[in-house]
Amino acid sequence: MFITDIRKEFYEVVANQRVALLVASDIDALCACKIIQALFHCDQVQYTLIPVTAWQDLGTAFLEHKEQFKYFVLINCGANVDLLEMLQPDDDSVFFICDTHRPVDVVNVYNDSQIKLLIKQDDDLGVPSYDDIFRDEEDEEGADSGNESEDGSEPSGKRRRFDEGAIERRIDRQRAKREWETRRREILFDYEQYEYHGTSAAVMFFELAWVLTKDTKDMLWWAIIGLTDQWVHDKITHMKYVTDIATMQRHVSRHNHRNEDEENSLSIDCMRISFEYDLRLTLYQHWSLYESICNSCYTTCHFKLWTLNGQKKLQEFLADMGLPLKQVRQKFNSMDMTIKENLRDVIEESSNKYGMKDIRIQTFGVHFGFKNRFLAVDMVHATAALLESTEKDESNSDNFIKALDSLSRSNLDRLHSGIDLAKKKLMAIQQTVASCICTNLILSQGPFLYCYLMEGTPDVKLFSRPMALTLLCKYLLKAFVSSTRNKRCKLLPLIMAAPKDLEKGTVIVLGIPPESETSDKKNFFGRAFEKAAESTSSRTLHDNFDTSIIELKTEDRSKFLDALITLLS
Amino acid sequence: MDASEVEFLAEKETVKIIPNFSLDKIYLIGGDLGPFNPGLPVDVPVWLALNLKQRQKCRIVPPAWMDVDKLEEMRDLERKEDTFTPVPSPYYMELTKLLLNFASDNIPKADEIRTLVKDIWDTRIAKLRLSADSFISQLEAHAKLDNLTLMEINTIRAFLLDSLNCLYKLRSNQHPGSSKGQFADF
């Protein structure tokens, strides 16, 4: 069931108990986890933090901890599956789920006792009504047998007539039941067909903190990072992003107004969050401007930087702005002050001439101490790189803890190492995109585009992780759309496969919806993958919380693809 | 004695806070802490004030001496005089560090205060060094220094005692047989 008063029904319930926090492995979940940890520290609530990466992980973690805990808080996992059936908990376990995955499973919505959803009900959910899906079977059969036992005491002549009446009624009831069941199947199919994402979990927990009047600037910053993560990894539509940014902007101005006085100015070490209408060049303040332009999806796709022509256009662009090459290739912090002052406006003007109308995006930046300035997008990339780092001897929970630490203000060197890893990751993505486009690795299979990364591709280990592969997939599709002339191919979705585990011989397969300006980001590949796997009995593992990402045995790849083609055409 | 021990002792000083929760009087070994009512100032030891501040349960009111004008006067006075002037609080250095680290958003002009306190500290330590130097070079037996705080004493204690012990050893080796007991430990 949905929670209406988050303070009374969630926080005050868990404040005196020991709680288990099960947190999924994405940045939004990490930010939400930081916020709820800060709240728990304030009120000295005992909790155990358990990072989970997939459904199996969730199951094992639950089995380990179900003896000790009655209250479980699940962040960014658990809403889109029948949780009670999967975990088989005891009757007194209560689950608080704050998940952005939609559609929410109907059992989770209509369970009143054990499942509490920390999700806003006006969040565009479209849950089917109770009567359309659930029906009490026992009442009707009871009525039927009740009639029969009454009829049994009547004399035989009348009984025959009553029996016929009873048989007709039963036939009618069965027909109605069959109709109701077909309609139920249709409704459920429509409801569960597309997978998409709702409001960020970090924003939900920030609103909880706000209701408790315990919100600080740190929590506001984490909420902003969670929201930006949804935008960077293409989980929400642009409209929703802009609306949520406006909400966050109200909180930011409230905090700035509260703390900034004319004469008693705040210490330079205090955190200051500001609204920025900044450039869409990833990590440009921590890199050189040239590198950032070459490795950002938006600029690369518009200039087509994998072609010689594209490189020339880039040089023209830089010349048009009057930026000397030597300055542009230098670290951003060491660039000339005169150039840095009007940089954003100069770039916006020139990019309008070159057809890049949206070079600027609304976002937030933070600034504390004399030299620490970060944009929300930078933090998302840094933390994502740390979370999915493929260094040897690092387990998933190590990476999780490192990424979680990098979000605190006191761990700046962790954050800087994350930024370095993010730079490597972005460069790897751009090189892979360039080589895929130049060698025509993207094939049109009819209803979708398909690309397979061979084992020998450089940096292919990075792409065995879901978030990195999602970024690569998104950039590849954008690049393909900008480079192809085939009008039909521009509207196709993309499926990408990359080797995941060489010992087990599996690949990770991922599907994203087609690229368009007004895309609603609804992904139908979850159900499609399931059906295709069933029909060909391929050995697949639908383990990830996002149903559009699966693991598949390398040998079953071709028959799986064929099944998908027939299914989707 | 370690600097952290001095800081621990400094945390016993009282400071005014404005809580946002209510609690009856609590009876601790060190004394009673008055009833807490939201919005009403109450005096508590610094350790409790910092804990409550980190849990966002109070707002810290800076002590009266932690003000830019007063500290500027003190700094100028300190620079003029040759001897040590009275300090704003026996633990001024530690309190400044603790309060400005954890509660800088409650203290106006925190950066300037930090600079001023550091200036006062530097002047006093320079005077202390000069005085220790003249004590040793003029072979004096007694010295009286007023208005020193525990942190300043602690800074120079180890060095001064060790160097005096070394000097004693050197002197007693120079004049074998005669023991000069004037360099006593304190």
TrEMBL record, chain A:
Indicate what this protein is called per its UniProt record. Answer: Cell division control protein 45 homolog
Mention one GO molecular function: DNA replication origin binding
* Similarity comment text for this entry: Belongs to the CDC45 family.
Q: Which GO terms describe its cellular component?
A: DNA replication preinitiation complex
Q: Which residues form a coiled coil?
A: none
Presence of keyword Nucleus: yes
Question: Where, subcellularly, is it found?
Answer: Nucleus
Q: For the region Disordered, what residue ranges are annotated?
A: 138-164
One annotated GO biological process: DNA replication initiation
Q: What are the alphabetically sorted keywords of the record?
A: Cell cycle, Cell division, DNA replication, Nucleus
Q: Where is the composition biased (Acidic residues)?
A: 138-153
Name the InterPro entries on file.
CDC45 (IPR003874)
The record, for Pfam families, names: CDC45
Automatic annotation (TrEMBL), chain B:
Q: Which residue ranges does the record assign to the GINS subunit domain? A: 65-162
Q: Which GO terms describe its cellular component?
A: CMG complex; GINS complex
Compartments reported by the entry: Nucleus
- Enumerate the InterPro entries for this protein: GINS_A (IPR021151), GINS_bundle-like_dom_sf (IPR036224), GINS_Psf2 (IPR007257), PSF2_N (IPR056784)
The domain of life is Eukaryota
Pfam hit, one: PSF2_N
Protein keywords: DNA replication, Nucleus
Q: Which Gene Ontology BP annotations are present?
A: DNA replication; double-strand break repair via break-induced replication
Role summary? Required for correct functioning of the GINS complex, a complex that plays an essential role in the initiation of DNA replication, and progression of DNA replication forks. GINS complex is a core component of CDC45-MCM-GINS (CMG) helicase, the molecular machine that unwinds template DNA during replication, and around which the replisome is built.
Q: How does it assemble?
A: Component of the GINS complex.
- The protein's name is DNA replication complex GINS protein PSF2
Query: What are the leading ranks of the lineage?
Result: Eukaryota, Metazoa, Chordata, Craniata, Vertebrata
